[in-house]
Design a protein that fits this description.
Elements lengths: L1 H11 L28 H10 L4 E3 L18 H4 L31 E4 L3 H14 L3 E4 L15 E4 L8 E6 L5 E8 L4 H8 L3 E2 L12 H4 L7 H4 L6 E7 L5 E4 L5 H7 L8 E8 L1 E2 L3 E9 L9 H18 L5 E8 L5 E9 L2 H17 L3 H4 L2 E8 L3 H7 L1 H7 L8 E7 H5 L4 H12 L4 E6 L3 H4 L14 E8 H9 L19 H5 L3 H11 L26
Parallel strand pairs: 2-4, 3-4
Antiparallel strand pairs: 1-2, 5-6, 6-10, 7-11, 8-9, 8-10, 12-14, 12-15, 13-14, 13-17, 16-18, 17-18
Helix pairs in contact: 5-12, 9-15
Length: about 550
C-alpha cells in the first residue's frame, strides 16, 4: 500500500521521499516497544550521566502540570509554561496530541534533554544516530500545528540553551558587515525586547515566542513586517548543528542552500544554536487600537450590515495599497459575537498615521447609522521610544498570562493583493459576504506587502505567494480556511506561522517543495530530525515498527 501511495505522489509531482504527512508511509525508526533495538536502562542512564543528569523520561501524567494556575506574582517564571514539565507543554494544549486534536493519541516525546550547550546537542544526536531514534526540537511550544512535539522521539529542549542578546557589528562569510543582534537557540523575543528597547527596530514576535525556532523558520510574521520585511528577511547568519553532529555556519556564502531552506521551511533541517538578525534604525511608533462591539447589535437589523461594511472597508484600504509603515492585524467575528477590532502600529509621525489610515476609519465610523456609531471606539498612543520599548514594558505581564491555554484549530491562507484589486474589490467583498453567511465564525488578517513584497521570491523557501500577498489570514480551519481553499483562489498558499495540521505540503511550500526535499535529503539523509508536518516528516506508528523492519 505504501509503494502505491508513493507512486501516486511521484506521478503528481509531490514527492517527500517517504515523508508524506499521511499514515500510509511508515518510517523505520526504532520505537519504544521494539525491544530488539530500543536502548536498555543502562544505556539511557549512560546518556543521562553524560548530559549532567539533564535527561528526563516523559510520562503523559506529567502534562497535568502544564495547566497549573498562577497563585502569586512570585510565580512569574513558573507561569511561563515553556519552563514546565521538562519542556513538554504546548502553548495550545491540544497540540500535545497528534494533529492538535484533543481526542487523538498523545504526541509527547519519550525523553526530554534540557540542552544547555552545543555538546549536549551533539551527544544527543550521536546517541539517536547510534540507536536510530528520531529527534524532535523545541524552544517554547508556540507552534500552532504541534510541530515541536513528536511521540517516540528524544526531544531537544532548547529553552535554557546558551543565551546571547548583545548588539554587535557582525561580518558574515561573504565579508559583509552589519549591525546585528545575536540570539541563542531557544531564546525568546522577550529577552530581545529588553535589549533593543529605545535603540533599534527589528521584525519580532510575541514575548513568549522563540526567536530562533519555528517562528523564524516559518517566516517570522510581525507588526513590523510591511516596513522591514519578515523575520527571515532580516536573518544574516545561522549557527547550526546538523543531524550528523557537525556544527556549521549557514549564510549567503556558507552552506547557502541550507541558509535558504532554514528561512521558510518550518524546521527539521538542523538544530539552530544561534543566529544574527540585522538591526534597523529606531523609529517612533504610533499604536492604533480599534474596537467595535456588535455582540448585541449583530443580531438586530443593521448590525450585520455594519460588520459587513467594516470588512469591505479593509478590502478598500488594503486594495488601494496601505502605507507600508503600517503593520499589525485586524480581526473580525460575525454574529453572535459580532466583534470587529484592530491592533495596528505605524512607524512614523502621528500626523502621517492620521492621514494614511486613522482619518479614513474615522470617516467610515462617522457615516455609520447613529445606533451603531457609538459602538466603534478608537485609541491612539504615541511611543516615541519605539515598538520594542512598548513590548519590553509587557515582558513580565505577558509571561504570566501563559498558563497552558486551550486547543487550537486555526489554519491560515495568504490573500493575494490582486484579489483585493480585482473588479475594484468586488470579488474580495463577495468572498467576505460569503463568509458572513456561514454564520458563527471569525478570522484575523495580518498585514503583509510593503517590504515583504520587495524581496525576490527565490530569496527564501517560504511559499512564493507570501511575496504577493497583502494579508496572512488565520481562522478556524474547518469553518473559514477550508471554505476559502475550496474557492481555488489563484496565487495563494499558507504562511507556516499560522497553519493547520491538515493543510497540504503544496499549500505550505508551493514550487519550493522539490528543492526543499532535495536539501533535506542531503543534510539529513536518515531523517533524524523528525519535525511533525515539516518537509521530510516521517510518520510512525505509536505501536512500534517491528512489522516493517
Amino acid at each position: 500500500m505504501a509503494e502505491v501511495h508513493v507512486a501516486r505522489l511521484v506521478k503528481a509531482g509531490i514527492v517527500l521521499a517517504l515523508c508524506v504527512f499521511g499514515p500510509e508511509v511508515v518510517a523505520g525508526y526504532c520505537l519504544p516497544n521494539n525491544s530488539t533495538c530500543w536502548p536498555g536502562p543502562d544505556k539511557w542512564e549512560g546518556l543521562r550521566k553524560s548530559l549532567g543528569g539533564r535527561l528526563f523520561a516523559i510520562d503523559t501524567s506529567l502534562y497535568s502540570t502544564c495547566n497549573m494556575k498562577i497563585k502569586s506574582k512570585k510565580a512569574v517564571r513558573m507561569a511561563d509554561i515553556s519552563e514546565r514539565a521538562h519542556g513538554i507543554c504546548m502553548h495550545y494544549g491540544s497540540c500535545s496530541h497528534v494533529g492538535c486534536s484533543a481526542n487523538a493519541e498523545w504526541n509527547l516525546p519519550e525523553y526530554s534533554v534540557e540542552a544547555l550547550t552545543d555538546a549536549d546537542v551533539i551527544k544527543t544526536l550521536a546517541f539517536a544516530n547510534q540507536h536510530d531514534i528520531q529527534v524532535s526540537v523545541k524552544s517554547t511550544g508556540h507552534n500552532l500545528a504541534g510541530s515541536s512535539s513528536q511521540a517516540g522521539s528524544i526531544m531537544l529542549w532548547m529553552h535554557h540553551f546558551q543565551k546571547f542578546g548583545k548588539v554587535v557589528v557582525h561580518s558574515d562569510s561573504c565579508g559583509s558587515a552589519v549591525k546585528a543582534i545575536k540570539l541563542g537557540g531557544g531564546q525568546t523575543w522577550g529577552d530581545a525586547y529588553l535589549v533593543l528597547q529605545k535603540k533599534f527596530n527589528l521584525p519580532m514576535g510575541a514575548v513568549t515566542v522563540g526567536s530562533s525556532g519555528g517562528w523564524v523558520m516559518g517566516g517570522g510574521l510581525s507588526p513590523l513586517a510591511p516596513q522591514y520585511g519578515l523575520g527571515i528577511d532580516n536573518v544574516v547568519q545561522f549557527e547550526v548543528i546538523l543531524a550528523s553532529g557537525e556544527k556549521v555556519v549557514a549564510d549567503r556564502c556558507s552552506h547557502p542552500d541550507l541558509f535558504w531552506a532554514l528561512r521558510g521551511s518550518g524546521g527539521g533541517f538542523a538544530v539552530i544554536t544561534s543566529l544574527h538578525y540585522r538591526l534597523n534604525k529606531l523609529t517612533p511608533a504610533v499604536r492604533f487600537e480599534m474596537r467595535m462591539d456588535m455582540s448585541h447589535a449583530a443580531t438586530r437589523k443593521g448590525g450585520n450590515e455594519t460588520l459587513r461594511s467594516y470588512f469591505h472597508k479593509w478590502v478598500d484600504i488594503s486594495g488601494a495599497g496601505l502605507d507600508q509603515r503600517w503593520g499589525g492585524w485586524w480581526h473580525a467575528a460575525t454574529a453572535p459575537s459580532g466583534v470587529g477590532d484592530a491592533n495596528m502600529w505605524f512607524f512614523g509621525s502621528l500626523k502621517d498615521a492620521q492621514s494614511t489610515l486613522i482619518k479614513k476609519l474615522e470617516a467610515w465610523r462617522d457615516n455609520l447609522p447613529k445606533a451603531y456609531r457609538s459602538l466603534v471606539h478608537f485609541q491612539t498612543t504615541q511611543w516615541r521610544d519605539g515598538y520594542a520599548a512598548y513590548m519590553a514594558r509587557n515582558v513580565v505581564t505577558w509571561r504570566r498570562k501563559h498558563t497552558g491555554g486551550a486547543g487550537n484549530l486555526d489554519g491560515g491562507l495568504l490573500i493575494p493583493h490582486a484579489l483585493l484589486k480585482a473588479n475594484g474589490g468586488a470579488e474580495a467583498k463577495a468572498l467576505m459576504d460569503d463568509l458572513i453567511k456561514t454564520g458563527n465564525t471569525q478570522w484575523a488578517a495580518y498585514l503583509l506587502g510593503g517590504a515583504v513584497a520587495k524581496v525576490p521570491v527565490e530569496d527564501s523557501s517560504i511559499h512564493p505567494a507570501a511575496r504577493t500577498a497583502v494579508w496572512s489570514l488565520t481562522g478556524p480551519q474547518h469553518e473559514v480556511i477550508d471554505h476559502l481553499e475550496r474557492l481555488n483562489i489563484p496565487n495563494t498558499g499558507t504562511c507556516l506561522n499560522h497553519h493547520h495540521a491538515t493543510q497540504s505540503a503544496d499549500t505550505l511550500w508551493g514550487d519550493n517543495l522539490p528543492r526543499l526535499t532535495e536539501i533535506k535529503e542531503r543534510y539529513d539523509p536518515n531523517g533524524r530530525l523528525n519535525c511533525y508536518h515539516c518537509v521530510g516528516f516521517r510518520d510512525q506508528s505509536h505501536k512500534g515498527n517491528a512489522a516493517i523492519a
